[in-house]
Automatic annotation (TrEMBL):
PANTHER family: MITOCHONDRIAL RNA PSEUDOURIDINE SYNTHASE, PSEUDOURIDYLATE SYNTHASE RPUSD2
Catalysis: reaction(s): a uridine in RNA = a pseudouridine in RNA
Key word RNA-binding present: yes
Organism: Gossypium tomentosum (Hawaiian cotton)
Protein name: Pseudouridine synthase
Pseudouridine synthase RsuA/RluA-like domain ranges (all copies): 131-285
MF (Gene Ontology): pseudouridine synthase activity; RNA binding
Highest taxon in the source lineage: Eukaryota
Length: 390
């Protein structure tokens, strides 16, 4: 017991020495939070409090076992040190490494947060109406906070650079997809848009750059989509359920029309009737004309993520720790400057600006949202440069 008390007292002394401002989700992004380097938008590393509550699966574990088993992005030794110095607390109090957690307790993890960089393209405002904002979302930027991304998001950038907040996105675009994003400025307007979407009154149009000469006639793909969250990849299921086989995926339908072709690539108009994860991407694969830079769906023979490691699509789903290191990833070639941020001696990412495992050669998909149409409203976004084959 004395040893445990000594550990807690040492942690309190160490915590009192640190002149650190711990951020929470309530702290808005600021212009000065961003560093632009080699065509990428980085976020200046900052101290952040992650909060979670003990669930049934965690109950009865020691605090160190809990973190080592549930958040494997950091080593067990790191979690031992974090508990001893007060960076992991329970109900706002320092605890010893042998502490056993109880149901519903609040666990705080204070850490030096490094967000993955995104491409340094602007988040362009297309229309700024009293109740609605439309923007052209750049590829590589997630819409809202998720996983390792908080400030390097569309909502974070709009707040930092335009002072626009709070905002309520009424639909989503995958992080690697670009184009039209409609955002409501108040909950009432957001509810109206969502009612239109849920009632099937909204039509969506995308353009994609695909491999080969796409057929001239309209193509309709009606194939169930089965999304594997672990692998971050969808598969299409074609057929009819019977007594021997049952389709696991959700019903999905997409219409495709060729806009142009140069004999090597084609620009295709994509009109999803439903909205499943990776629907357009996997349905284009079904036609034999996948998106030309879509590594996940260019081939059926994609190496499992459990073997390959992290790919671009998975980065947004990772949270609390470092992503797995891809065997083909490249280290971010950024040289630390003392004016940019302070090195934290406990941080597992310092002195690098980007988090460990970040693949610096990531690019956006050739998939772009161009139009949303609803009852008595239409919003559009310009076509991207890659949609011209001349």
């Amino acid at each position: 017991m004395k040893r445990d008390r000594d550990e807690v007292e040492e942690g309190n002394e160490e915590r009192n020495k640190m002149e650190i401002v711990w951020q929470t989700p309530a702290h808005p992004a600021q212009k000065q939070d961003y560093i632009f380097h080699n065509g990428k938008r980085h976020v200046r590393p900052y101290y952040f409090e992650f909060v979670s509550h003990v669930n049934k699966r965690w109950e009865g574990k020691t605090i160190v076992d809990l973190f080592a088993q549930e958040f494997r992005g950091r080593s067990r030794d790191y979690y031992v040190s974090a508990v001893k110095c007060g960076r992991i607390q329970v109900d706002g109090e320092n605890i010893p490494v042998s502490y056993i957690v109880k149901r519903c307790q609040k666990i705080s993890h204070f850490l030096h947060r490094h967000e993955p960089p995104v491409m340094a393209w602007d988040v362009e405002v297309l229309q700024n109406e009293p109740d609605v904002l439309t923007i052209c979302k750049p590829a590589s930027v997630p819409v809202h906070p998720c996983g390792q991304y908080r400030k390097n998001t569309v909502l974070g950038i709009l707040q930092a650079e335009y002072g626009l907040a709070p905002l309520y996105p009424i639909h989503r675009l995958d992080r690697l997809v670009s184009g039209l994003l409609i955002v409501a400025k108040n909950p009432a307007k957001a509810d109206i848009f969502r009612q239109h979407i849920e009632a099937g009154l909204v039509q969506k149009q995308y353009v994609a750059k695909v491999v080969g000469v796409f057929p001239d006639a309209e193509q309709v793909v009606d194939a169930n989509i089965d999304y594997n969250a672990r692998e971050g990849r969808s598969t299409a299921e074609v057929g009819i359920s019977n007594g021997d086989t049952t389709l696991k995926g959700k019903a999905a339908c997409t219409k495709f029309t060729r806009i142009s072709t140069n004999g090597i690539y084609s620009i295709v108009l994509c009109e999803p009737v439903t909205g499943r994860t990776h629907q357009i991407r996997v349905h284009l694969q079904c036609t034999g004309h996948p998106i030309a830079n879509d590594i996940l769906y260019l081939s059926d023979d994609v190496v499992s993520r459990s073997t390959l490691g992290t790919t671009a699509d998975r980065a947004a789903s990772l949270s609390g720790g470092s992503p797995e290191t891809s065997c083909e990833s490249h280290k971010e070639e950024y040289k630390y400057c003392s004016e940019d941020f302070s090195i934290d001696p406990m941080c597992t990412h310092c002195p690098n600006l980007a988090p460990n495992g970040y693949d610096g050669h990531e690019e956006g998909l050739w998939l772009h949202c161009v139009r949303y149409t609803g009852p008595e409203w239409v919003y559009e976004c310009p076509y991207p440069d890659w949609a011209s084959l001349t």
